[in-house]
Specification:
The chain has 264 residues and is of the alpha/beta class. The chain is built from 12 helices and 4 strands, in the order H-H-E-H-H-E-E-E-H-H-H-H-H-H-H-H. The structure holds zinc ion.
Length: 264
């Protein structure tokens, strides 16, 4: 099975312009909800533009070596299942995220808990897409893949969506809220494949600030970045963006990213 996938990826990269690869598409699949609460979540996901816009942007921008299903429902996830080439997102995860935003009175920021949940979910979907692309095309990853996936998620949101920076801020805030779960660090927090939630929060804010240092100067202040760190964020965002574009170039359709410096 693995060999077939590898061969498929190689053939696809050889004939990337041909329609054979272009036919592989991503799609959202909604499984039967297991409860009334999950039914509400399913309805919110289906009626929002967020999920469809992610699916559309994946199809518009990437050649996929095989079809990619984004499956909502089930117990497992969020994760990318490389055996099935599926991204799995349980309704219960979405509900949990929404509850966090509600409990934190997130709407006081001007973004409703439902919208913040959809924002964070978009980040999660692009994060899982990163794992899918790494697997499908055997992309090199030097460093923690989880950090790399967070980087691609933020880069794609910022580059592909008009309000991508705002979407990313909601995603960062979710990491901040999740970090509050920890009363005391355990060994497992340090050997986990993911960076600490609080680090993911600062990294995401750093990218957003780095992508628009003038407009998002307030984020640097909010995060209390030193001047040196703030300057590095600008460099880091540019490097992450360029690195991912370089890696993914053979698999892009018409993806065009402004290479000019972003100082909005
Ligand atoms: Zn991951």
């Amino acid at each position: 099975m693995y060999l077939i996938r590898v061969m498929s990826a190689i053939i696809c990269s050889l004939f990337i312009i041909t329609s054979a690869c272009a036919e592989n598409r991503a799609r959202a699949v909604y499984e039967k909800p297991g409860s009334a609460i999950e039914a509400v979540i399913k309805k919110e996901l289906k009626t929002s533009d967020s999920i469809e816009s992610v699916v559309t942007l994946i199809n518009e921008n990437f050649h996929l070596s095989e079809p990619l299903d984004i499956v909502f429902g089930g117990e497992e996830g969020p994760l990318y299942d490389s055996e099935e080439n599926k991204i799995l997102i349980p309704y219960s995860f979405v509900q949990e995220v929404k509850q966090r935003f509600i409990a934190a009175n997130y709407s006081e920021t001007g973004v409703s808990a439902t919208d913040a949940t959809l924002d964070a979910l978009m980040h999660t979907l692009f994060h899982e897409l990163a794992h899918a692309l790494v697997f499908m095309y055997e992309l090199p990853v030097v460093g923690k893949e989880e950090d790399a996936a967070d980087g691609l998620a933020t880069v794609l949101l910022i580059d592909l969506f008009e309000d991508g920076q705002e979407i990313s801020i909601s995603a960062a805030d979710l990491f901040d809220l999740e970090s509050e779960d920890i009363e005391e660090f355990a060994e497992g927090d340090f050997w986990d494949e993911h960076s600490l939630d609080i680090q993911r929060y600062y990294s995401t804010l750093c990218y957003v600030y780095g992508s628009g240092p003038n407009k998002y100067a307030y984020l640097s202040k909010q995060a209390d970045f030193s001047q040196e760190r703030a300057e590095l964020c600008i460099e880091e965002y540019e490097n992450r963006s360029k690195s991912w574009i370089l890696l993914l170039k053979p698999y892009f359709k018409n993806y065009e990213v402004s290479q000019t410096s972003r100082c909005n």
